[in-house]
Amino acid sequence: MGDYIEEIVEKSKQMDFRDSVDFTGKFKNIVIFGMGGSGIAGKIFQDLFTKVPVISLDSYEFPEFVDENSLFISISYSGNTEETLKATEMAMKKGAKVWAITSGGELSKMVKNVIMIPRGLQPRSAIGYLLNPLLLGSGLANEDSLREAKENLERLNKEHEELKKVADEIYLGNKIPAIFGFPPFRYIAYRLKTQFNENSKILAYWSYFPELNHNDTMPLKSTYRKDLFYFIALTYPNMNEMYLKRLKVTSRICDFNYREVKALGASIASQIYTSIHQGDLISYYLAKRRGVDPRDVSIIEELKKNLS
Amino acid sequence: MGDYIEEIVEKSKQMDFRDSVDFTGKFKNIVIFGMGGSGIAGKIFQDLFTKVPVISLDSYEFPEFVDENSLFISISYSGNTEETLKATEMAMKKGAKVWAITSGGELSKMVKNVIMIPRGLQPRSAIGYLLNPLLLGSGLANEDSLREAKENLERLNKEHEELKKVADEIYLGNKIPAIFGFPPFRYIAYRLKTQFNENSKILAYWSYFPELNHNDTMPLKSTYRKDLFYFIALTYPNMNEMYLKRLKVTSRICDFNYREVKALGASIASQIYTSIHQGDLISYYLAKRRGVDPRDVSIIEELKKNLS
């Protein structure tokens, strides 16, 4: 990752939009389009960067407001995602400034401003490549914070026993993971849900505080099938104390246990990547336990063929 | 509802922002804050109104971009929701134009521009009161479309047997509802999830097309605990044909059955309310079947006391 950091910092300088989104800047809003493993980058980013409205999109509807004052960032690892190509075409027609983050495909041909990333990965394994240009381009990360992330990831990789244990408990209890997220990192909980889907081939549930206190709290107290779920709370250092209080009070009043998986580090980048990585490892070990291939996404490929 | 339509149309004229959000308008963005049963109105609205970026919020983080060019709409049925009061205070400090939709409480005292709605309901039963000012104020609904909604709701109320049957099947099969939504109405699926939570006291799962084709599709094919779920697809007339195709192909390839619950009517208002109402009825009949009181939200109340 050492060379990678210098490389991505250099690449992302092209897309630097730090000076374009302040009050005098040319972009009044940022729209990020991406599906699944590629879209998660935009979902995480929209909660973290709030100098202008950031809208993360993942459907066929295209917003009216997109125009020459919009920065449109199109993310597709393969560069051939049907939904993403359609939306990018629309954005170009409407005169938005369009950037693409991709490893190739149609998208790299269509769009002039491209951050090219390496081929040969699963989109969900390329999260660093997909997200770093957004974090660096916006100033939410820099070379130092990426180095902190790298050091903390190496620390995590020395020892996986606790995470293996979580996978074991889910497997042996025949449980469905239920993941609690916390703003501004709630979409890391969504990411873990999708990792359980794609890597472990199991359905998973995600929700976030404080919103879940206004609905999920009712059934959590009831005993209706609560034993089916394995609760994971994705916490991070220096969380708003109200979130921690809500987690503790909810668990006490509703009488359920949860496993806390805590991010490491001081920077946003380190917290994002260490949280993601621990979740990825749990989903990976669960796949191994279940005897399924974490890389296999054949059904999604079959579906794409059936739709085209 | 006859008198109600005239009344809400009249009231919403105050908050009419149709002429303020076009290119020459004063509002560059709309921020809607609300939690749980009150927040759902903003979540549904943000996907439907796209003339300017609409950001729906439900957490303690407050976006930097909010300023005198923002229209901030604060929704709290009780008017005393902790998260909502904090955010509204911030919006006022930052000079945003603030409107509140509430039945009273602190919020009605804090904010000058208030759409007052009747007291004595559960927030989730007040969805029409909470959402109509947004639909009318933006021009997404008018008196005619609300009348169409009313007529179609009356039609639905003549006959609940099919919806009762869905509740029976969930109950007898000891299932967890998994609801599929479709943009731009995906948050109606989220609404139904929360109705299962609060009315029926059961956990429920929601997701939406086409995004779910990039993750959930994998476990749907596998047989891992798939039998636990009862799949409901909330469709609507004149859907983008790609959504219907995706639903059918996914169900075929992944080999699962689903129950289609289809909205009625030509207008956005009729489609929203008939879709919501059918879901509400399923969650209500499931509560009855389970012998729980659909009105009881005592745990949420207990939690609020423990947090204050």
Description:
- The structure is a homodimer of 308-residue chains.
- By secondary structure, chain A is α/β, with parallel strands linked by helices.
- Chain A has two domains: 140 residues, Glucose-6-phosphate isomerase like protein, domain 1 (Rossmann fold); 145 residues, Rossmann fold.
- Chain A contains twelve helices and nine strands.
- Chain A has a five-stranded parallel sheet with strand order 2-1-3-4-5, with helices on both faces. A four-stranded parallel sheet of chain A has the order 7-6-8-9, with helices on one face.
- In chain A, β8, α10 and β9 form a beta-alpha-beta unit.
- The longest helix of chain A has 23 residues.
- The two termini of chain A are 37 Å apart.
- The model of chain A has no long low-confidence stretch (mean pLDDT 92).
- At the A-B interface, α2, α8, α9, α10 and α12 of A face α2, α8, α9, α10 and α12 of B.
The CATH architecture of the largest domain in chain A: 3-Layer(aba) Sandwich
Multimeric status of the protein? homodimer
Instruction: Tell me the β content of chain A.
Output: 15-25%
What is Rg of chain A? 20 Å
How helix-rich are the residues of chain A, as a percent range? Answer: 40-55%
The overall average pLDDT of chain A, rounded, is 92
**String of helices and strands of chain A:** HEHEEHEHEHHHEHEHEHEHH
The most extensive contact between chains is: A-B, 74 and 75 residues
How many helices of chain A in DSSP terms?
12
Give the N-to-C terminal Cα separation of chain A.
37 Å
The largest β sheet of chain A comes out as:
5 strands, parallel
Strand order of the largest sheet of chain A: 2-1-3-4-5
Inertia-based shape of chain A? globular
CATH superfamily of the largest domain in chain A: Glucose-6-phosphate isomerase like protein, domain 1
CATH class of the largest domain in chain A, named: Alpha Beta
Total strands of chain A: the figure is: 9
List segments of chain A where confidence is low: pLDDT < 50 over at least 5 consecutive residues: none
